[in-house]
Specification:
The chain is α+β, with helices and mostly antiparallel strands. It has a seven-stranded parallel sheet with strand order 5-4-3-2-1-7-6, with helices on both faces. Strands 25, 26, 27, 29, 30, 32 and 35 form a seven-stranded antiparallel sheet that branches. Strands 17, 19, 20, 22, 23 and 24 form a six-stranded mixed sheet that branches. It starts with a helix and ends with a strand. It binds ligand H79.
């Protein structure tokens, strides 16, 4: 049976359960996450047999840690790298000191990547470093060095394994590993035995960083089991979201209602804004490869890396920056020099990174901002990327009394401060002390009092009959006044005291006032009432839906009317079961949904690749295009009864997945119930 069925039941079960199998209070969770949130900056290390070919195979030079897969190297050929692995210049102390001197507080290293080679002493396979000429347990040496220099030691572990005889799926090009005798359950047992070794042989481990979870053999049931297993062996450990199966695309966050571990993992990208209330960590390479590639000598400049670290901290995330060591056991020179430059910057400016929280400003024209609160004092670290030519730095929209400002580069020299309306004016020297990021530490008398507009909070911009709207501001001593007639709020406008109930199209404008004077910008949000669609008559409905199955190669959903389906029929729920091939196929599902009451219905699809959902003639969800698991949603008003539904889906290559969800103002997001589907 397809994974969607499993997920369907699971998502219902899991929706309101805490992430771990053992119940954990928020206080306990915060305590477990504390060192990680404080650290903000870590080193990723991708090291394995792939360092030997160093990215080159049969004339191609663009390979990395995926080389066995991308170049389709036979198992027997790849295995021979084991007898060549002899990194004689490896020195654990040197690696750890390089990370420490760069300001990094933890190291995450590949104990096993997708190629299945184990870089640690394992009794579960002979495909490990102990059987190489080197024969030393580098993980033990690194664990000891991390302890010595005060860094947290953490393991990366790939779920996907192209080497193990029981791992599934096999690739169609694999000749020496057959699917017939493979047993995925047995593979999971192998994983558990290895995880037990990793969690008992090397002392306290900071993070278990899973990866390679996206193939259709992995699911949230396994994810939950492995998560609980790991936490049982080391209760304080932190586990990334790739232990579960709900990660959406390389943006790295997990889908609502799936099993998301302890933090999200954006890969090679930084979220455009902070992600409120979630922990996340951007992992990134300095050049274009994770594993060592000798031809790829262009690295991001240190200035760019420093600004990325700052950008991430200003959005409340961690930065896990990768190094791909060579086969002789050294870090590439380009990586070392950049780490040294970052270290120089961190030595001066580290306090603007460690233990800070996200910027409280909506925007900071000259750069970024991070924040620390202690008692009645608020410290803002102003990360100035664009140094003001006139020597005047303006902090807009801040009503707090400034106490002091200094450049972290010259902590002994206070900078002159003044105020112009809601702007704090800081006089700065003519030249930036740092080309990447000059940090000004601005100390304020708390609590924070920024002129950010109040928040207008509601489920949706659309509604059917009525909508609850709340206005929020966390500022001290303000009242919120609002209008519903598109005029700007003044000191005599309606005073907000309790949630509003909207019963017709309305534009709400809201603003904060203190002593009769406006002390914020104005927030605006428009709400639209929609007419719910009338249901259709359906003669003799039977449960399930119709499907039409197509084959072809597309980059977006085709015009199905001009195509001939290869198969059609009925099925109980959206499934790929009837397909002939794992790739280059499409399904169109049609039928009716029986909705229970007059309401606003919000549908969403999570799909890889594209999908669309229509109710009647209206396109409600547009999630088209070639992409990894991605989600999109849309809303429509419906009267109780039968409504035509049409879901289109296509898959080009790689993973395939389709999930359809529904929510209403009184129903949390859940897979579209099977009982609603008829045809
Ligand atoms: O361990 C690193 C990567 O190997 C792993 N995650 C990070 C932390 C990763 N797995 N998959 N991906 C990243 C994205 C998928 C990339 C692919 Fe390809 C595109 C796989 C096949 C096509 C890149 C290009 C790898 C081979 C060719």
């Amino acid at each position: 049976m397809r994974r969607i069925f499993l997920l369907f039941q699971l998502a219902c079960l899991l929706a309101h359960l805490p992430l771990s199998a053992q119940p954990e209070s928020k206080t306990e969770h915060d305590a477990r996450m504390e060192w990680w949130r404080e650290a903000r900056f870590g080193m990723f290390i991708h090291w394995g047999l792939y360092a030997i070919p160093a990215g080159e195979w049969n004339g191609g030079t663009n390979y990395g840690e995926w080389i066995r897969h991308s170049a389709r190297i036979p198992l027997g050929t790849y295995d021979k790298f084991k007898s060549k692995f002899n990194p004689v210049r490896f020195n654990a102390d040197e690696w750890v000191k390089t990370a420490r001197d760069a300001g990094m507080r933890y190291i995450v290293i590949t104990s096993k990547h997708h190629d299945g080679f184990c870089m640690f002493d394992t009794r579960q396979t002979s495909f490990d470093i102990m059987e190489s000429p080197f024969g030393r347990d580098v993980m033990k040496e690194l664990a000891d060095a991390c302890r010595k220099y005060g860094l947290k030691f953490c393991f990366y572990y790939s779920i996907m394994d192209w080497h193990h005889p029981d791992y599934l799926p096999c690739r169609d090009w694999e000749t020496d590993r057959g699917a017939d005798s493979a047993d995925f359950g047995r593979y999971v047992e192998y994983m558990k035995k290895q995880l037990e070794e990793l969690l008992t042989q090397y002392g306290d481990i900071g993070v278990l960083w899973f990866d390679g979870e996206w193939e259709n053999t992995w699911n949230d049931t396994y994810g939950k089991e492995i998560y609980a297993f790991v936490r049982k062996l080391q209760p304080d450990i932190i586990i990334n979201n790739r232990v579960g199966a709900g990660r959406l695309d390389m943006e790295g966050m997990s889908d609502e209602g799936t099993f998301g571990g302890d933090f999200g993992t954006p890969e090679q990208q930084i979220p455009p804004t902070g992600l409120l209330g979630t922990d996340w960590e951007t992992c990134m390479t300095m050049n274009d490869h994770w594993g060592y590639n000798k031809a790829n000598t262009v690295y991001k400049p240190a200035k760019k890396l420093i600004r990325m670290l700052t950008d991430i901290a200003s959005k409340g995330g961690n930065y896990l920056l990768n190094v791909g060591p060579t086969a002789n056991g050294t870090f590439p020179e380009q990586a070392v020099s950049r780490l040294r430059e970052i270290g120089r910057w961190m030595k001066v400016n580290g306090e603007s990174i460690y233990g800070t929280s996200a910027s409280p400003f909506a925007s900071t024209p000259w750069g970024r901002c991070t924040m620390k609160k202690s008692g009645d004092t608020v410290i803002l670290y102003l990360d100035v990327f664009d140094w003001p030519a006139d020597g005047i730095l303006k902090v807009p929209g801040c009503l707090n009394e400034p106490v002091s400002a200094v450049l972290l580069a010259h902590p002994g020299k206070p900078l002159p401060l003044s105020r112009e309306d809601d702007q704090i004016i800081i006089r700065v020297p003519p030249d930036a002390p740092d080309q990447a990021n000059s940090v000004i530490k601005l100390t304020l008398q708390g609590p924070l009092d920024l002129t950010n507009p109040p928040e207008i909070v509601a489920d949706n911009d659309l509604f059917v009959d009525r909508l609850k709207v709340e206005l929020h501001s966390d500022r001290p001593n303000v009242e919120i006044r609002f209008t519903g007639d598109r005029t700007d709020p003044v000191d005599t406008s309606f005073l907000y005291t309790e949630p509003l109930e909207i019963r017709g199209k309305a534009t709400i404008k809201a603003r904060c006032f203190r002593d009769g004077k406006p002390v914020s910008g104005t927030a605006t949000r428009t709400f639209t009432m929609v007419l719910p669609l009338a249901p259709k008559k359906v003669e003799n409905p039977v449960s399930g839906i119709r499907y039409h199955y197509y084959e072809g190669e597309w980059d977006s959903l085709p015009d199905f009317d001009s195509l001939t389906p290869l198969k059609w029929g009925e099925m109980p729920y959206f499934s790929f079961e009837p397909r002939n091939d794992q790739e280059r196929f499409a399904f169109v599902y049609t039928g009716y949904i029986l909705v229970p009451k007059r309401n606003l219905y919000t549908f969403s699809t999570a799909s890889d690749d594209g999908s669309r959902l229509y109710i009647g003639k209206k396109l409600v969800v547009d999630n088209d295009g070639l992409h990894g698991l991605r989600q999109a949603e849309g809303s429509i008003g419906l009267l109780p009864g039968f409504h035509p539904i049409r879901v289109e889906y296509f898959e080009k290559t790689g993973s395939d997945e389709l999930e359809v969800y529904v929510k209403t103002p009184d129903l949390p997001k859940q897979p579209l119930p099977e009982e609603w589907l008829v045809h």
